[in-house]
Amino acid sequence: MRIGILGTGTLATALATAWTRAGHDISIAGRSPQRTDAAANMSGAHARQLPDIADHVDVVLLCVHWEGITDILTAAGAPAGTLAGKPLIDPTNAVDHGIGVLRTDPGRAIAHHVADLAPGAHVVKALHLFPSTQWTTPAPTPVTVAMCGDDPEAVEIVGSLVRDIGGIPAVLGGLDRARQLEEVAGFVITLAFAAVDPQSAIPAVAQPLPQP
Ligand SMILES: NC(=O)c1ccc[n+]([C@@H]2O[C@H](COP(=O)([O-])OP(=O)(O)OC[C@H]3O[C@@H](n4cnc5c(N)ncnc54)[C@H](OP(=O)(O)O)[C@@H]3O)[C@@H](O)[C@H]2O)c1
């Protein structure tokens, strides 16, 4: 697939590298041309400019610090509809590291803000829980990637991209579950910064429970 990545930082470069290795065609763009070139060189992606990246891709990954979301989506023309009809993956965490409290209004997910800024795009919340190194140096056991989104085809596409980099997709439901998924990241981040393994804070389920 042709995947466009908005952002040139740690997670953007790791996912660009992993998807390039999996045989996908990656375009990357950020606000700094120098950092865009560096991320492209490191990952094997094409360096693009924000205003025209949407012309080159079928799927978009939004991968910036949450305070930069409005700026980068605006620079990519999303409010004018450039991402309409495309899956838009949102792995962002609007939390203060070390504290883990969400910075969005109660009941509201950052994914909803992303959807408002990108009319017509099919937002899928995914890939926000694991550190970037999971995708460049995968753990021996595949990880489950919880995700949600309203458009079934977009969710299916993102699920296949997750499989391509060694994850197992688990779809929780529509985008109304995004706040819950984002709160889980806050929970994980809080424990991790308290030197507690978050996996030790959830029950191990030896046998799957019957369907309700
Ligand atoms: N790193 C991880 O392991 C990880 C895991 C899960 C989720 N995430 C989430 O993924 C997102 C990116 O994290 P990261 O670790 O890759 O961060 P990072 O390395 O600090 O990179 C942040 C990116 O955001 C860009 N940015 C910040 N403000 C911007 C603005 N106003 N306009 C345009 N671009 C702006 C930066 O551009 P400049 O370089 O030009 O400043 C850079 O490309 C975050 O939302 C984070 O919560 C990260």
TrEMBL record:
It comes from the Bacteria. InterPro entries: NAD(P)-bd_dom_sf, P5C_Rdtase_cat_N, STEAP_metalloreductase. The keyword Oxidoreductase applies. Keywords: Oxidoreductase. Residues 2-93 form the Pyrroline-5-carboxylate reductase catalytic N-terminal domain. Pfam families: F420_oxidored. Signal peptide: none annotated. This is NADP oxidoreductase. It comes from Micromonospora andamanensis.
